Amino acid sequence: MPTPVNLLFALLAAVLLPSRVAQAQDYRYHPVFLYSFSKYIEWPEGTPKAEFVITVVGNEAAYEEIGKMTQKREEIKGKTIKVLKARSIREVLPSHIVFITNDVRFPLSDLQKYLGSKPILIVTEHPGIADRGTHINFVTLNEKITFELNKTLALQRGFKIATGLEMLASKIY
């Protein structure tokens, strides 16, 4: 795993970048975060090996911005990056990361039941949801995009999290 110092440099710019008032529709910085999350989180054994799949459920702008990441970065963890668009939580398999935008409403228990114990990192941007079953949740604090980390749930799913990532989280559960 890269050192926490490298993580700080990689994420610091993104964390300190001001969000816009319409942050929910501005997804320019989310690819940087998702890429960094993937670098500083180790997936458990049994994770699909062929491609690194990021599935976006919801906002088309989020899908497009995250899709642009594949033009700049070809691989994550030695795997080709593939970004998929899903219309519902029933279309998220197989994935390494599932990003659910704030315009999608569903019972979190349905997603948890559907995914079971599969090693899929769940990233959301719903206020107050990080402590109820997602691994990472984007939030806006003082007009800056940051994230909450549900370390307890991530560890239960077998993810290993770099200390540097924990240091950047605005809140840890």
Indicate the proportion of strand residues.
15-25%
CATH structural class: Alpha Beta
Helix residue percentage? 25-40%
How are the strands of the biggest sheet laid out side by side?
Answer: 3-4-2-5-6-7-8-10
Instruction: Provide the succession of SSEs.
Output: HHEEHEEEHEEEHEHE
- The CATH topology is what? Rossmann fold
Q: Please name the CATH architecture.
A: 3-Layer(aba) Sandwich
| Ends distance | 22 Å
Biggest sheet details: 8 strands, mixed
Uncertain residue ranges:
7-24
Q: What is Rg?
A: 15 Å
Mean pLDDT, all residues: 85
Number of domains: 1
What class, by secondary structure content? alpha/beta
What is the tally of beta strands?
A: 10
Instruction: Choose one word for the global shape.
Output: globular
Explain what the structure shows.
The protein is built from 6 helices and 10 strands. The protein has one domain: Rossmann fold (3-Layer(aba) Sandwich). By secondary structure, the chain is of the alpha/beta class. Strand 3 and strand 4 (79-86) form a beta hairpin. The longest helix has 13 residues, at 4-16. The two termini are 22 Å apart. The chain has an 8-stranded mixed sheet. Residues 7-24 have low confidence and may be disordered.
